[in-house]
Amino acid sequence: MKIVQAIKEPNKPFKLNNSVALKEPLVLVFGNRYLLESDQIYAEVREMFPNGHIVFGTTSGEIIDNTVLDNCVVLTAIEFEKSSILVKRSNVDDFNNDDEKLGKSLMAEFPRENLRHLFVISEGSTVNGSALIAGIEHLGNTSFGLSGGLCGDDDRFERTLASYNENPKEGEIIAIGFYGETLEITSSNYGGWTTFGPERIITKSNGNVLYELDGKPALDLYKTYLGEKAKELPKSALLYPLSVKATQDSEALVRTILNIDEVENTMTLAGDVPEGARVQLMMSSVDDIVNGAFHAAELAIKDRKNPPELALLISCIGRKLVMDQRTEEEIEEVKAVIGDDTVIGGFYSYGEMAPFSGQDSCKLHNQTMTLTLFSE
């Protein structure tokens, strides 16, 4: 595996960390939405990697090595020497926003033989990540791993962009299939958030749209808890996500609010919030988040046979808001576990995709640190 990385600051060209020539590399380009809106961004990357498979995604912060950047673009180009990749794309508008149907259609484009892992970069403004995952895994997922994340737009929640081999645009969902017997790919996630306040029951919802808790308008209840911070919705909701337990015995999923509808008095979350599920507010601290990142890295590397050569990190914008000036500490904790020889790239997101530890089925998470580790 050969890897080249680069950073692009506003009004400057990409600065490469080395000049190694790569053959048909996978080129992951994660960056600030304003910079990826440039009409020249694709041409600029294509000039550096004429034969590359170029995937773009907007972010809420860029990760490279042990550094977190803002208002920049980070690039990681990977040549797999013993393996192969297949990249496919689709758009939510082509499926009338039926995200599960989109997931099924996207999965149908990937041959299953020797498929080791699917890594997804999805638009993050409107997608129901739970439905997308359900579509991808509709035939049962026992032979390959699934991880990835939802694109971000800092804390603006205006629009997110992604693309494959073209300028970034809205509504795109990109899936990267990794093939090869020598590939070892592991993924994991962990949060570090604590529940507080009364537990309530979801009495009315539809997919990822939440209408009522305990028979009362959910948005009104949420605003009551936020107090003055309700004026800053949906940004302020990142500091107080929801813990959602579908059944009494199921593991809790963390859900972040993507949008609110003042007219309908509803909240749209990044993943499903089924009726009958139990809900509680959550909060966290810097130390809890740092410890969560450390634990996520331990889980990702736990059963590996080979040391990782590449780590793709996707962490949530809510964690970044809590960490503030100490954001890099969670990246440093990950690096301390996976080792200095592992190349690190990634971004801050509106949602993360990974299975719970010890499980095969992938879930949509919020407020977690998610790692996907590669070696061949």
UniProtKB/TrEMBL annotation:
Residues forming coiled coils: none
One Pfam family of this chain: FIST_C
Domain FIST: from-to ranges: 24-217
Organism domain of life: Bacteria
Start and end residues of each FIST C-domain domain: 218-356
Cited InterPro entries: FIST_C, FIST_domain_N
PANTHER family attached to this UniProt entry: BLR0328 PROTEIN
Protein name (Swiss-Prot/TrEMBL): Uncharacterized conserved protein, contains FIST_N domain
